[in-house]
Amino acid sequence: MYAMYAAYHFPKTCQNGEHTFWFCPSTIAELAQRESFDIEQWHLVDDYSPSVRSLKYRAYWLLIRTLGQLVPDRFTKTNMIVVMRLNGTHRP
Predict the structure, then answer these.
(1) Which 3 state secondary structure label does DSSP give 92?
(2) Per-run averaged pLDDT (10 residues), the chain, 92 residues
(3) What's the pLDDT at 39?
(4) CB within 8 Å of 39: residues ≥ 6 apart
(5) Tell me, what DSSP letter sits at residue 83?
(6) For 71, which of 47, 75, 80, 92 could close a Cys bridge (C-beta 3.0–4.6 Å)?
(7) CA pair distance 77, 60, nearest whole angstrom
(8) Which of 42, 41, 39 has its CA nearest to residue 86?
(9) Which residues, including other chains, have CB under 8 Å from residue 68's CB and lie 6 or more apart?
């Protein structure tokens, strides 16, 4: 659903101006492998903030919460938590 936000706000498609990179699971896996890490697990998480007062924001998240149960998480979650461990081939 982030694609809807990005399309609506183009060309300012990033909600946080401090963000300089976007990572997908395959990019994270490649970076982990290059630095001798194994991915133990990853989870998609929701970042809904009920303290935001914008009516459009609340309506959007109400829609996501309602319809989001009908589609896979990858379409409705906007953040990812990745747990990694250093593998045995690490070279200092």
Answers:
(1) coil
(2) 64 67 85 93 81 81 81 79 85 61
(3) 94
(4) 28, 29, 32, 82, 83, 84
(5) E
(6) 75
(7) 13
(8) 39
(9) 1, 75, 76
Residue at token pair 């697990």: 41
Place of tokens 């659903």: 1
Asked if 78 and 28 count as a contact pair (C-beta separation under 8 A), the reply is no
Name the residue type at position 72.
P
Q: In residues, how long is the chain?
A: 92
DSSP codes, 4-59: HHHHHHTT---S-TT------HHHHHHHHHHTTEEEEEEEEE----TT---HHHHH
pTM over 0.85: no
> Exposed, middle or buried, 61 (CB in 10 Å: 0-12/13-18/19+)?
buried
Q: Where are the domains of the chain?
A: 35-92
